[in-house]
Amino acid sequence: MQAFLHLVAEDIKQRFGQDLSEIAIVFNNKRPITYLKKHLSEVYKQAIWSPQFFTIQEFVKQATTRGEASALRQFFYLYELHNEMVKQEGGEPESPEEFYPIAEIILSDFSQLDYELVAVDQIYTELYDTTKIDLEFQHLTAEQQAYIRQFWQSFSMSGHTGVQQRFLKLWKRLPQLYRRFKERLANENLTNYAMLYRDLAENDKHSSDIVSAYKQVIFVGFNALNRAEATLFKRWQDEGKALFYFDADSYYLDDNMQEAGLFIRRNIFQTGLVNALGETPNLIGNRTDQVHVYASLGKVAQAKLVHDLLLENEHEGKTSAILLADESLLVPLLQSLPALQINITTGFPLLQSPLFGLLDLWLHVQEEVSWRKKEKLPYPMIESFLSHPMVRLAQEQRESIQKDVVDKQLFEVRLDILSISSSTVPTFFQPTANSAALIPNMMALLEALQQTSSGEGILPQIDQTLLFETRRVLQQLLLGMDQIGPLNIPFQIGLIRKALAPISAAIEGDPLKGIQIMGLLESRSLNFDHVYILGANEGILPKTSNSATFLPDNLRRAYGLPILANQDALSAYIFYRHFQHSESIHLFYNSVVNESSSGEESRFIKQLAFESQFQFVHRTQQQAISFVDKEPELVIEKTGKVWDTLYNSYLRDRSSHISATGLTTYLQSPLQFFLRHIAGIKEPPSVSQEFEINNLGTIIHEVMERIFTPFHHLETFTSTKVLGENIPKIEAMVVQEIGRQYHTEYKNANELNSLQRIMLQIASAYIKVYVEHDMEHYKMFRIIELENSEDYYLDFPITVQGKTEYIKIYGIIDRVDEVVTHDDEIKTRIVDYKTGADKVEFKKARNKDDEETAETMFALNGTNDLHKALVQTLFYAYVFEEKTGRKELEPHLYVARRMREDGTLFYSKNEGLLEGDYLREQKSEFITFLRRTLEEIFDPSIPFRHKPDMHVYPSDPYTLFYRNSISENTDDEQE
C-alpha cells in the first residue's frame, strides 16, 4: 500500500513539474520532512530544485522580526503587571511563589483565546458574571439561576468568602491584564506564537505578505486546526496561494459518528479547505486483515513481549515503528530490544536517567540545609548519594561512612561528620550561601559531573548530552531570573524542576532505516509496514484529563475553545490513520488493574473490533504456574564439610560453644542455626527507621546494672527503699546510655532524634516499673551476680554416634540475687529482663499421641511456638547452679508490660507457680530436654531444615534468606 507522503510526492510532481524552488511545504512537525524528501527522490528519480520545508511555527515566524518571549519572561511580565493592578485597587501584592501557579493557568488561557480568536473582554466579563451568580445563588436550582441571570443588573448581594472574592476580583481585572501584557511584550519587541497567530489572522496584509514570497505554499498532514489557522488557511486558499493535503479515510470522514474524522470534516465542510488528493478512499472499511492485540501482565511486560515479535517480523526492505502511547515505556523498551538497528525520535528523557535522580536529590538536600537550615539529614538521603553511580565515591570512604552510621544507628546524620572528599562532587552537601547562588551552584555540580563523565557506547553519550542540555536550560533560567529581585529557594527549586522536566537526549540513528521509536503524536503523516503500539490502555489512549484552566466547560463550548472531547478526537485520528496503510498492526496494553491502570484496552480498539471488518486476534500473557507435590524446602545434610565444621568446632577443638540464644535458635529453626552458627553468615549491618528493640533491651540492661552495681558483692542485705533514690535519675542515665550505644555524647533529651526520644520514654518507663516492683514486693535484697558474661562456661556430656562427647555451653547471667519477702522468706532468684511481648505463663504442648517431645516441651500457651524466655531462663539457672553449687534458684522474668498483672515468676494454669517441687521437677525435665536437643544437633542422620510451623520474626534476615533460597530453587525447577 502506498504511503500518504508518497501520494503527496506524486501529486506535487504532476502539478509543479521539475522546478520546486519557489514552493514552500509546511508540516505540523519536523519528522515528516525527511520522509517527504525521500519520496520526492523516488518519484522524480533525478536531481531537481528542492522546495523549502518548514514547520508551521517556522513558517508563521517569518511574519515578524520580534523575538520570542520565553515562558519565564512572560511570567515575570505578567507578575509585575498583575501586582501593579492590585496596588492600584488598594490590595496587597502577591509574592512570585503565590502567583506562579495562577500565572501558568492565566498564560495558558490567554494563548488559547488568541489561537481561537475569542473576544477577551467578552468571555472574561461573562466568566465574572456567571461566577458571581453561581456564588450568590448556590442554593437555587440551575433553572432559577438562569432566570436570575436575565435580570443580573438589578441584583447586588454579598456574602462571598475571602477566596471567592479574590477570584472575582481576578476575573474582573483579567481583560485589562491581557491588554497590558500584550503591550508590554510589544514594547520589549517580543511576542509569542499565540499572539503572532492572532495578529496574522486579524491583519490581512501581514498574512498575505508571508505567502507572497512563494509561488505556492503546500500544507501537508494537518488535522486539528485552531480558529486562527483555519482563518489564515482559508484566506490563503482564496488567494490561490495555498494547497492542502489531508491524510484521511472515508471510513471515518463520511461517518459523522466517527470522532476520528471530526477535525478534517471541519476543515473541509465548514472551513471550506480543499483536499488536493481529491476523493477520499475507503481503505479501513475494505480491509479484512488481522490485528493482533496483546494483554500483558504489567506495564513493563509490554516491552518484553515486543522483543520476540520484532525477531519474527523484521524483514529486509520493510519499515517498522514502535509507537509509544505511554512514553514512560521508553526505558524498559530500550532494555528489551533485540540487537536491531533503531532510531529514537522521542529522545531519552532526563526524568528517567540517573542524572535526574542525583540532581533531584541535590535539590532536596538544598531545601533542607539551605532553606530549612537543618544540620542533619535523614539517612536514606545519605544512602541514596553513597550508592549513586555518578558520584564515584571511593569504596573505602563509602564503607567508612556506612559503618559509622550503622555503628551509631544514625537515623539522621550531621553534615559536619560527612567526609566525601574522594567523590566527583565533594561539595554535594554544602549549603548554598544565598538564594542567588542556587542555580550557579547547580551548574558547577553539572560541570564537575561533565568533566568526569567518560566512556564509549550509547549510555555515556546520553549522559553527556543530558549534562549539556541541562546546563543550557539552567543558563537560560538564570538569565531570566536576573531581571527581577531575589527569589526564595523553594520557589527556585520548583522552577528548576519544571525546566528540567522536558529535557531529553536524542539518540542518533537513521530516520529512514531500522526500527523507528517515537511517541504516537510524532507519527502524524508517517506510515510504516509494521506498527507496534505500546500503552494502548483506556485512560492513556485517549487521555482522560485536560490542562488546567480558569474557563469552565460551558464557556469553552460556547466560545469554541478546546474541550476534552477534542483531545479524544485527535487521539482517535492519530490511532485510526495507521490502519489505512500498515501491513500489520500489533497493539499492547497492560491488563493488570492497579492505581495507574484500568486493565482495559483502549475503547478505540473495541470500536474498530465492533464496527470494522478487521479480524482482531487477542492474546493474553499467562504467568507460568508450577505444580509440586510438596512444599519445597532447603535441606542441609550433615555430611562432608558441614559435618567436619560442626564436629571440629564444637566437639574436637571446642572453639565454639552453645549459648541459650543458640539453643532457642535451633529449636525454632535448625536451618537458621546452621546459617548463623555453622556457616557463619553474618547479619548485614543496617539502619532501620523502625524501632530498634535490641538497642532498647541493651540500654535497659545497662542502666539496671548501673543501679545495682553499688550493691554487688555486699555481704549484708540492703533495704529496697534505697532503690527509690534512683527513680529521679533514671531519665538522665538512659540519655547517657543512649549516647554510649550510638557512640555520641548526649547531655540532655533535647539532643536526641525523634526515635531516640521514643526509646528514652519507653526505657525510662520500663526501668521505673522494674525498680518499683522490687520496692513493693520485697523488704531487702542482696546481689550475688550481676551481668557476668565471662565466667559461666560448662562442659555438658552428650552421646554422639555411641560415644560420650562434651559440648561447651555458656550463659550470661543478668542478675542473681537473694530477696527477703514481706513474710520474711528468703528466696534466691535468677532475673532476666525482657522488653518485648514475652509472658511468664506457659503450658506444655503435646503431640497427637499425647506424649511430650523435645519439640513440644516448654512451649508457649499450648502451641508449637517455643517459649524462648522460659527455655533461656532455665538454661541460665542450670549453668549457674552447676558452676556455683547454689540450688533452689527461682527463674524470674521481668516483663514491664505485664508485671503488675502476672508477676515475675513463671507459672502454668494447670500446675501453678514454677516453685518448690514443681520447679525441681521442671529443672530435671529441662536437663533431659537439653541433652536430647544437643544430641539431635550432632546427629548426622538429622539434617538442618526449617520448621515451617514454628513462628519466627518475619523480617529476621535468616528467615528472609531461607524464603529467598526456596524461591530461587523453585524458579530454577520451573526453568
UniProtKB/TrEMBL annotation:
Pfam families: PDDEXK_1. It comes from the Bacteria. Residues 657-947 form the PD-(D/E)XK endonuclease-like domain. This is PD-(D/E)XK nuclease family protein.
